[in-house]
Write the structure tokens for this entry.
Amino acid sequence: MSENDRCSCHECSCAVEPEAASKPEPPPISTPQSEDVSEALIAWLRSHDHEDVIPLIHARRNYGVEKYGTTLQTHNGRDCVEDALQEAGDLLQYIMQAMMEDRGDIWARMPPLLNAISAIRNITLMWEA
């Protein structure tokens, strides 16, 4: 194993899979099977008592339409699990950054994040069922 195969933090000896950092994904495409993910997620959130997260989903949906010209669609040619894994890695780093930079208001600002994490946990439990 070469030096490039090691974590860059220099405090651990974990092996880093090069593709784990950022597996290039193709631009999303639209297919006849495509469905709007946000609408299905909002319906699920309503039916599972997570209404408090819906404004976040609306905001992210609107941002996606503005940036990409479309909503997140199923069957879009991308590996959605890989995308989620990369986003989870970013989320963990953002949370650590918030803890490290604590300006005294971190816990007052955490409820929306904790609500979103709770919804993530609950929706992933559906896969196990």
Summary: The mean pLDDT is 85. Residues 23-128 form one domain. The first helix runs from residue 18 to 21. The chain is about 55% helix and 0% strand.
